[in-house]
């Protein structure tokens, strides 16, 4: 949800760490939302923010979402997130400065003595986690060669695809074959999702600010949609897989889709958007349920010792969790995001044995 600037400071999470590095101009933010159910985990996002207040607010929202994601997935961890507020866009940071930024970030994490574990997120990857891992052990998602579980993106996409199938079933759309799926963002997750949906026979519409990604998707039959028309183009399933806050109340009122199912964290920009989607009978798959495949991969592999098969079966169960969310939403007459929070709270208080 969007926060007003004051909310960046009124946030009631466990801990906020900030540090500024004059040499690179980077400001580091770590927010630990909850450690009630285990040490907190959540990735490191690097981005250029309009202000430190925006960076703090984003970290708070993302950390909240991690607590909900762990709880609704029955994972024995709390939620946290790091934001590295860069002075310029990531592409304009040179290798030397980036290396320094990652090492300082790792120092900050190490000082928290394990109450917060990081991992990859937007603009950070396994190679970056290897560098973080030189300084601290509190890191998920290092490359496989360095003893980590590697990228979480593929399994995130697999989970989102399970969420799509469950949504299509619950919404009376049948299977994915023949449905029009509009994917916003063809990056690490959206790209894999596009290939899976295409293989399942969906008609794909795609949008990305990067023309190379569009050219790549056109090679397997995807049709591009202009960035400005993403929320007005008719489709069956709208899949935001780029940034958050894509659906505010105005977008929710005009969206021409039967469902919203994507990988992006914090898809809803305001509390009203969920209600509008419900009133319009557009099924919204709460992001912290649908995109939990990455957390299942990282925590499953690195904490719980899961093998491929176990990760796959828990990831498939995302579809069942989502169906339960839709049933709670229908029974209680509440938006699906509210229903998912209710389920997350219930599972946090009484974690269910991980269902397979
Ligand atoms: P990514 O950086 O690899 O991909 C993002 C893509 O979106 C890029 O191709 C970029 O060019 C494109 N993009 C950026 N702004 C856009 C815009 N305005 N319109 C259209 N396209 C735009 O990131 P990712 O790892 O694929 O993650 C995507 C989203 O999923 C993020 O919100 C992330 O937080 C969330 N998520 C990722 C994971 C994971 O395992 N990687 C797990 C959970 C949630
Ligand atoms: C996310 O799922 O949003 C993440 O940040 C990925 C993640 C999950 C669990 C531990 C570290 C990073």
UniProtKB/TrEMBL annotation:
Single biological process term from Gene Ontology: amino acid metabolic process
Keyword Nucleus attributed: no
CDD domains found in the cross-reference section: NAD_bind_Leu_Phe_Val_DH
Catalytic residues as annotated in Swiss-Prot or TrEMBL: 81 (proton donor/acceptor)
Entry keyword annotation includes Cytoplasm: no
Residue ranges annotated for the Glutamate/phenylalanine/leucine/valine/L-tryptophan dehydrogenase C-terminal domain, each copy included: 151-356
Domain of life: Bacteria
Record key words, sorted: NAD, Nucleotide-binding, Oxidoreductase
Binding site for NAD(+): 185-190
Any one GO molecular-function label of the UniProt entry: nucleotide binding
Pfam families: ELFV_dehydrog (PF00208), ELFV_dehydrog_N (PF02812)
Family under the similarity heading: Belongs to the Glu/Leu/Phe/Val dehydrogenases family.
Protein name in UniProt: Phenylalanine dehydrogenase
């Amino acid at each position: 949800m969007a926060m007003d600037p004051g909310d960046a400071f009124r946030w009631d999470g466990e801990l906020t760490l900030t540090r500024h590095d004059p040499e690179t101009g980077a400001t580091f933010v770590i927010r630990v939302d909850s450690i009630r159910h285990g040490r907190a985990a959540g990735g490191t996002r690097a981005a250029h923010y309009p202000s430190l207040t925006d960076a703090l607010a984003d970290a708070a929202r993302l950390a909240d979402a991690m607590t909900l994601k762990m709880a609704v997935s029955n994972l024995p961890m709390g939620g946290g997130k790091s934001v590295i507020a860069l002075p310029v866009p990531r592409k304009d940071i040179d290798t030397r400065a980036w290396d320094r930024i990652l090492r300082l970030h790792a120092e900050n994490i190490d000082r928290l003595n394990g109450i917060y574990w990081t991992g990859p997120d937007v603009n950070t990857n396994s190679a970056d986690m290897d560098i973080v891992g030189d300084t601290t052990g509190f890191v998920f998602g290092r490359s496989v060669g360095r003893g980590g579980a590697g990228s979480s993106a593929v399994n995130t996409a697999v989970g989102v695809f399970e969420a799509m199938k469950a949504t299509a079933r619950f919404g009376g759309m049948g299977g994915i074959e023949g449905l029009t799926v509009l994917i916003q963002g063809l990056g690490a997750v959206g790209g894999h999702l596009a290939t899976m949906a295409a293989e399942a026979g969906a008609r794909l519409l795609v949008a990305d600010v990067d023309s190379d990604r569009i050219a790549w998707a056109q090679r397997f039959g995807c049709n591009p949609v202009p960035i400005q028309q993403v929320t007005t183009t008719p489709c069956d399933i709208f899949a935001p897989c780029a940034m958050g806050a894509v659906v505010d109340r105005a977008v929710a009122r005009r969206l021409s889709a039967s469902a919203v199912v994507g990988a992006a964290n914090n898809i809803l920009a305001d509390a009203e958007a969920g209600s509008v989607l419900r009133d319009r009978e557009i099924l919204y798959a709460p992001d912290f349920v649908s995109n939990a495949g990455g957390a299942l991969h990282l925590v499953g592999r690195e904490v719980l010792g899961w093998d491929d098969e176990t990760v796959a079966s828990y990831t498939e169960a995302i579809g069942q969790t989502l169906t339960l969310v839709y049933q709670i939403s229908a029974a209680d007459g509440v938006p699906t995001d509210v229903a998912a929070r209710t389920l997350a709270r219930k599972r946090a208080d009484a974690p269910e044995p991980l269902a397979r």
